[in-house]
Amino acid sequence: MQDKDRTILIVDDEKISLRITNHILQTKYRTICVSSGKEAFEYCLKERPDIVLSDLRMPGMSGFELQAAVKKAFREPIPFMFMTADSDEETESQGFAAGAQDFIRKPFRADVLLRRVHNILETTDKIRHFKRASETDRLTGLLNKASAEAKISELCAEVSGALLMIDLDSFKLVNDIFGHAAGDTILIHFADICREAVRSSDIVGRLGGDEFIAFCQSIFTEDVVAKKAAFINEKIVAVAKELFGDDMAIPLGASVGAVFVPEEGRDFHSLYQKADKALYNVKHHGKHGSFVFHSEHAKNTNEKTANTDLSNLKKILGERTVSKGAMHLPLEQFKTIYQFVNRVSLNYSHHSYLALFTVHSQNNDSVIAFFDTVKSVLRQSDVITSSAKNQCLVLLLEMSSENIGIVTERVKREWQKNPVSQSAEISVEISAL
Fold it and tell me: Model's pTM, two decimal places?
């Protein structure tokens, strides 16, 4: 920030002293002059100055009283520097004890005053820089977990609005297929989209990984929450296609769980848990959407769940829509299925195989295209995952040894129909469970 953009509020009931001080400082800074503590306090409430340079002894409201009032009114303190003709050292000690950054005695030299004001501004800038660094998530530039929760907790206690939990769906697949550098790029773009989805007066932060949090003031309807979720989903898909191509197969999106404040209370930790339950609801009903927690709805849902029957449980557990081709899962979920199938194979005469396809290519488009080919060729009962950026791990269920070669050859034959296959070689390893 340029010096001329800095505002120095000068407070002095002596007109000559006020005029001299203003004459010195206006050569480098924007100055505002007032003759009483009351006027100074009113100005601070309307337009926050960078420094208050105040006389110490004034009728009505002294410099000490002004500093105390301003300190109480602002969460982030405004730097104060006192001026006085008093030579009492006790007064100076009292000023520093009150939180003043500096103390200067009248009459003062112009160069001394300018230097001391410059030092205060420089020190304040450094403090703000370190504070921002300690509060900021290094990758995305959003508030980090601790600072976001602290600021949102304050807002929940005072204002009305909506607390949002935002998850980036299927993010792990980006890391698995394209690598962590691509994952970081997606997170940076997602953070920008979250910023864009809220107003400048709202708070948004990163909790860690692919989890984000926001507080939007004066939002009271589910329709607005749904629109924000739709906006985030539309934007992140557009960004991903721009980065990885229009045929990008990763189901990126956002799940948003919300709770209204003060409808569901003002305690942050309680609200957080309710928003998290709402997020859980979205995650287990197709993702890429939003849900708002209401205590009454939750109560009714719990009662229904306690008395549900097998038919309803099958609906809850089952897939909402069964897509064609193999089931594509993150590695951790694939691992669970593999462990279960392996148990079945140990106890029953069911034959299952693991196939590891490796794409030998530096072209990410080739890798994505091959994954799509494998998924489309295999059966709905087969399961695939990304075991590495260029490797596709396949679990083939109920497969005879005679047919395993037929399946792998069919994958290779279908792959060769794709133009991008010319830039990639495919190798495969097979093992029985």
Answer: 0.51
Q: 109: which 2 tokens?
A: 């030299």
C-beta separation of 353 from 399 below 8 A: yes
Q: Which residues pair with 394 in a beta bridge?
A: 355, 384
Helix 63-73 vs helix 89-97: crossing angle, to nearest 10: 10
Query: Is 176:330 a contact under the CB 8 Å cutoff?
Result: yes
Residue 160's DSSP bridge partners are: none
Per-residue pLDDT tens for 101-146?
787 888 889 999 999 999 998 888 887 777 666 788 989 999 999 9
b/e for 75-101, b at 16 or more Cβ within 10 A? eeebbbbbbbeeeeeeebeebeeeebb
Q: Which residues pair with 214 in a beta bridge?
A: 164, 204
* Omega of the bond leading into 251 within 30 degrees of 0 (cis): no
Buried b (16+ CB within 10 A) or exposed e, 235-272: bbbebbeeebeeebebebbbbbbbbbbeebeeebeebb
The 10s digit of each residue's pLDDT in 291-330 is: 999 887 655 555 444 444 555 555 555 554 455 677 777 7
Contacts for 135 with CB less than 8 Å, ≥ 6 apart: 143, 144, 146, 147
Point out which residues pair with 428 in neighbouring strands: 357
